[in-house]
Amino acid sequence: MNSRLRPDHGPEIRLADADALPLVTSDEAVLQAVAARFARSRLSAEQLRDVKLLVFVMEMEGGRLGAEGPGGLGRQAPLPGIADWGEQLAAAAGISRARIEAAAARLVDAGVLVPDPATPGRLGFAADVLRPIGVAQFLDWPWVTSRLRGHVPALLIFRAFLDTVRDPGGWTSATYESLARHACYSLGMAQRGVAQLLAAGVLERSTHVGRGHDYQLSARALGRRPLPGETPEPAPSERGELGAPPSPLAALPTPPAPDARAVAPALASAGATLSSMVVEIGGLVLRVPDGTEIRMGVQPDGVPFYQVGPDLKISRRPS
Questions:
Q1: In this structure, are residues 19 and 1 in contact, taking their beta carbons and an 8 Å threshold?
Q2: What digits encode the pLDDT tens for the residues 221-232?
Q3: How many CB atoms lie within 10 A of CB 77?
């Protein structure tokens, strides 16, 4: 398909040949192939995450997801055998080489990874799991990869988020629950992944009241450098961001203790004089008067709740 449309007024619009678009793996197609192969001995959630993580990292490290900035999709070269770059993949994914090799064996067993017929010892993704690149073509992948390398929650949640994006330059609604389900993760780890993506500057979150689940790809992730006269982006060390990959538990936010009775607002404790403050609870953004007391407790049925001031109580609806 290669067509041209000419509106009544305005320039000619050229439609790209869909068959010529670069191809990347489909997360859904990969999981379907793996699930079908292991239907009688179902994989655990961790094993599924390792499979998803390995495929994503192989595409980033192998050049399929761009090697020359936004739109530069690199050459679709055969991938080295796992034995040849297992250490590189383990470092990029943030998991052990043993887990990388186990995930690769499952992908080969499921027919997702296949030997490259033209290059002995090299691998390729089966045609059945490849789709046109879509939104991923607009990202500056070398920069994104450098920010996320070695951070498992950020990688898995970003892969899940990309599947929800339709407009790369606009806001996308996504809940922790939907991202956790897509990534085969717990709700807490989905929250941690989002926090890492925000800290890395890859995603931005809407600050509008009541829109705590609206996110967009940052201008830098889309390849926009600072314009002349703009303040350059601070280095990660200056912003306290991700930096070098941490140990598995190093970046895990400490949840409030179930028996906590009060959380003193940071602005109030610092003696701030602002008339209001923004509070986020479980992804819900509220604007409340400065100095409002926030308490956390546990209901008789074991469900935690937050009491914001004297009138507002927030709890999770039982499933």
A1: yes
A2: 998 865 555 554
A3: 13
Query: How far apart are alpha carbons 62 and 74 in whole angstroms?
Result: 9
Q: Where are the beta strands (DSSP E) in the chain?
A: 4-5, 13-14, 23-25, 79-80, 113-115, 122-125, 130-132, 172-173, 203-205, 214-217, 276-281, 284-289, 294-298, 304-308, 312-315
Strand partners, 280: 285
Report yes or no: 278 and 285 within 8 Å, Cβ to Cβ. Answer: yes
CA 163 vs CA 20, 169, 184: distances in Å: 21, 15, 14
* CA 19/CA 203 separation, integer angstroms: 30
**pLDDT of 299-319, one tens digit each?**
666 667 677 766 677 776 655
Q: What are residue 229's phi and psi, to 5 degrees?
A: 95, -20
Q: What is the CA radius of gyration of the chain?
A: 23
Q: For 60-184, list the strands marked E by DSSP.
A: 79-80, 113-115, 122-125, 130-132, 172-173
Q: How many CB atoms lie within 10 A of CB 69?
A: 13
Q: What are phi and psi of 312, to 5 degrees?
A: -110, 125
- DSSP string computed for 239-296: HT---S---TTTT---PPPTT---B--HHHHTT---SEEEEEETTEEEEEETT--EEE
pLDDT recorded at residue 3: 41
In this structure, the number of other CB atoms found within 10 A of the CB of residue 277 comes to: 17
pTM above 0.70, yes or no: no
Task: Match 């595409």 to its residue by tokens.
Answer: 59
| Dihedrals phi, psi of 176, to nearest 5 degrees | -60, -40
Look at 53-57, 213-217, 254-258 and tell me which has the smallest mean pLDDT: 254-258
pLDDT at 110 over 90: yes
Within its chain, how far is the Cα of 261 from the centroid? 33
Of residues 123, 106, 112, the one with CA closest to residue 29: 112
Q: Which residue shows structure tokens 């940052």?
A: 218
Examine the pLDDT at 262 and tell me if it is beyond 80.
no
Per the structure block, which two tokens stand in for 26?
């489909």
